[in-house]
Design a protein that fits this description.
The structure is a homodimer of 433-residue chains. By secondary structure, the first copy, chain A, is α/β, with parallel strands linked by helices. The first copy, chain A, is built from 12 helices and 24 strands. A 5-stranded parallel beta sheet of chain A has the order 5-2-1-9-20. Chain A is elongated and about 70 Å long. Chains A and B meet through strand 5, helix 4 and helix 11 of A and strand 5, helix 4 and helix 11 of B. Chains A, B: InterPro entries: FAD/NAD-bd_sf, FAD/NAD-binding_dom, NDH-2.
């Protein structure tokens, strides 16, 4: 087990923190070059977050949407992968400190640490309303939804049954819309015949949004199409209803309390604490302001991209927190750093090319917004969405597996991953009434 | 949500506790008949335990080897599934008490609650050496093995590295043999190129057995073939070494201590506590003695089968704790109860037909014992084993999925489910030295 020379490179490496869409794209753009690269992530896998809602609703298994980072990059000897959690950044000494183990020196540092959920100061809501940011959370949601039906089947109290079969999704963005549609389909199709005392098709799925309409990032006609599609699936859409409280019994909105056993939080997103690590000022959402070349203003040799960066487009508007933005920024920055480090070329400015913003609404409906007047909705949009997402999945084996599972599920309405494997909730959560 | 008549059947149902191979076979034999059946399990899925070691070694996902019980039985209106945990049995009142919810009255009761691991009185070993009985344990083992390599890659202390890359499997039965072989292959093939500082192919996999040889349930020549196959894969086989202690640092055997970060317990099995529920005497392994017709001696209308029953064959020997025994007993008892309840036919005695006892030793070697002199070993045995296990999997969709994944893995040596998703161990466990 001798340490090869790459362990102590002559020049400090390009260190990338975060192996999401952005960080991984930087690594891939530098892969196979003479630039030493170290990629740090606290997970050992790259997670295909846009399909996480399908794990939460029992359509896919975690391994279908996650790929070991080492495996993706195994054939590039210039890339070292470190599984670790960042504790801080020493800007003067040019080092990344981890919670365990030696600090990692950098020549250039790319911060691609994404975003987390925020409960707007109501952190105690988190225990009752998990968000959808990690495999663990997706598994928790899956367990709560399925467990609700199991407990309802066993209960003879009509009020308890109704509460157990009520699922509230908070937040009318793409995550909330996709979750609500997918849960409604789970109840109406996959589970329809499985119970004897309850009728899963009578489950209530409620989507609550504080603003005046769903999907504010999309044009109005696509958003109202999405709302109609959800309502056809049986989802109750409540716009203009800010959530006032969430506890073990359910969700409170102005003037009423909705008893619900499963609550899913899709309302708030906040950038990673990277600004704190760097000791610089962030914007209201915690994002780091970056220049057109994605360098962090005032901090030499540090770059940021994706959800954790505030990057303005040509019109002075912030780029949205989308996978395609992070991926394009990552590819751009990786290529730019390679040319800069090997040939001294100046870093060119980044320009975003909108490849279409999509949301899926149930089994055969989706909306696509390509900017301007170019839009698509319905079954063709769903097919396009499905095709794009299968192609985007990083690994060939996954592509085969996910395609087959989708096809199978599409033909049979079945869900293959309907397992309750998280330890059950404490009795207090199970029957608080 | 009116309760259908089947909710309050005229005659109390056949209640089956446990949806393993035995309990599920009883339910299937009664499916579609006029006999009301209630099947109770504390999980919502039937688990294909013989393939659990492949989940623990990242070859398969949990959903590949688990199928929702409701889904399996959805089309039989005479069968009700209850997700619940048994607290006790009221033999006089003919009721099964659950830890939550109303008790369930039975006309006949079938106990098919299987077995659990036992640490022979050393329960504190469990935290350091998980066994392989549940999806949660399989996930814990997968995480510890993979995390060991990650921590070793980050460590610069040779002794710590060696400990992190040492995996000890305790127990030379089929579970221990299959785990050791599968982990050796994971390290030697799937992970071989993924690291930069460590060489995963130098990982130590040690199989410790207290007895004089491996696989005592198999003929000697098959067992020694299995040992040679394991050693070819790089496994160190230590027979005649009873374990004296297990703690966070490793495993102690007579005269020496083996520092190891991952320890897997495959040594002891004990029947479920069903004898306690019934208030009757069990044998040394906790099994309930049953008559030839599988009825529990002295307890009217109660039957037991599978790992939790002590059932003697024609020669007066106890039948082994194998899936095929439980499955044959379940089918036999289900048919017998149907004829008895509908036509008053007496319960016939059960006779076991040995369909072959198998163990797999790595990617293309297995052993098969059909009784007498009929034996098989090597690649053909592996092919037979693979074919049998694919066919045995309960659900068609799973069959397709598992076949494809196996084929893929076979062609590429890859592991699709290599995710570290259990919360990491406390620092004390990570670097106790």
């Amino acid at each position: 087990m001798e340490q090869p020379p790459s362990d102590q490179p002559a020049s400090p490496p390009v260190v990338i923190v975060g192996a999401g869409f952005g960080g991984l794209a930087v690594a891939k753009a530098l892969a196979g070059s003479d630039v030493p690269v170290t990629l740090i992530d606290h997970n050992n896998y790259h997670l295909f977050v846009p399909l996480l809602y399908q794990v939460a609703t029992a359509a896919l298994s975690p391994a279908d949407i996650a790929e070991p980072i080492r495996h993706i990059l195994a054939r590039y000897p210039n890339i070292t992968v470190v599984m670790g959690r960042v504790a801080g950044i020493d800007v003067a000494g040019k080092q990344v400190r981890l919670t365990e183990g030696d600090p990692i020196a950098y020549g250039r540092l790319v911060i691609a640490t994404g975003s987390t959920s925020t409960y707007f100061g109501n952190d105690r809501w988190a225990a009752h309303a998990p968000s959808l940011k990690s495999i663990e959370e997706a598994r928790t949601i899956r367990t709560r939804v399925l467990e609700g039906f199991e407990l309802a089947e066993r209960s003879s109290d009509p009020a308890a049954r109704e509460r157990l079969m009520t699922i509230v999704v908070v937040g009318g963005g793409p995550t909330g819309v996709e979750m609500a549609g997918s849960i409604a389909e789970l109840a109406r199709h996959a589970l329809a015949r499985d119970f004897r005392r309850i009728d899963p098709t009578t489950a209530r799925v409620i989507l609550i949004e504080a603003g005046a309409r769903l999907l504010t990032a999309f044009p109005e006609n696509l958003a109202s199409y999405a709302q109609r599609s959800l309502e056809r699936l049986g989802v109750t859409v409540m716009t203009g209803h800010p959530v006032q409280d969430i506890d073990a019994t359910g969700v409170s909105i102005a003037g009423s309390h909705i008893p619900a056993a499963t609550i899913i939080w899709g309302a708030g997103v906040r950038a990673s604490p990277a600004a704190t690590w760097l000791g610089i000022e962030a914007d209201r959402s915690g994002r780091i302001p970056v220049s057109a070349d994605l360098s962090v203003t005032g901090v030499p040799d540090v770059y940021a991209l994706g959800d954790t960066a505030l990057c303005l487009d040509a019109a002075g508007q912030p780029l949205p927190g989308l996978a395609q933005v992070a991926q394009q920024q990552g590819s751009h920055l990786g290529r730019a750093l390679r040319e800069n480090l090997l040939h001294g070329t100046a870093l060119p400015p980044f320009a975003f090319h909108n490849r279409g913003n999509a949301a899926i609404v149930g089994r055969h409906a989706a909306i696509f917004d390509f900017g301007g007047q170019r839009r698509l909705k319905g079954f063709v949009a769903w097919l396009l969405w499905a095709a794009v997402h299968v192609v985007l999945l990083v690994d060939f084996a996954q592509r085969v597996r996910v395609s087959l599972q989708w096809l199978w599920r599409y033909l049979t309405y079945r869900r293959g991953a309907r397992l309750i494997t998280v330890p059950p909730r404490a009795p207090a959560r199970q029957s608080p009434q």
